[in-house]
Amino acid sequence: MLLPRYPAPVVEYREEEGKEKRCITSGRNRVLELLAKRSRHSNEADEMENELHMDHLNSLEKREALETVATSCMQLNEVKVFSCVVCKYTSRKRSQLCIKQGHTTNSHYATKRFFSCKECSYKSSSYSLLPTHRCQRCKCENWERVSMIQEKKVVLDTEKLEVRGEERRFIN
Prior knowledge:
By secondary structure, this protein is α+β, with helices and mostly antiparallel strands. About 30% of the residues lie in helices and about 25% in strands. It contains four helices and seven strands; from the N terminus they run E-E-H-H-E-E-H-E-E-E-H. Strands 3, 4, 5, 6 and 7 form a five-stranded antiparallel beta sheet that branches. The protein starts with 9 loop residues before the first strand and ends in a 12-residue tail after the last helix.
C-alpha cells in the first residue's frame, strides 16, 4: 500500500502549570496509526462483500448451465403452434392476415428444429423435418442441422499471436 507523502512530524513543546515540558508529536506518525486501525465492523463488511461475490458467481454458474443445455439441444419437443388450413402456414402465433381474412386455424403441438445455412451461416428454425423455405440472405436451400445456441468460442492469447506482432493499419 502506497501512502501519500506527508510533511515531517511537527514537534511542539508545551508548558503546563505545575508540570515540566511535554513533547507532543503530530503528523506522519499519527496518520500512520490511524491508517493501520480497522473498523469494529470491518468483519461484517467483509462478510457482506463475500456474500455478494458468491451470489454473483452462483448466477454465472446458473447461466453457464443454461448455455450448456442450450448448446446440446437440437430440437424442442411439444411446442404449441397454429396452422392455417388455407395458407398452409405454421407458426407460434396466429397470422394477422389469416385472422383478418377469416381463415380456419388449427392449434397443435409440433417439434421445433434448428438449422443453419451452409453458405452464409444464417440460422433458422422449422416445424417440419427440413425447412420448406429458402435462406433469407443468400436464397440457397442448403441447410445443416445445428443446436439452439452456438457454443461460444474463446480465443486464447496464444492463438492471437501473429508472426509480425501486433497488426496496425495505416501506419507508415
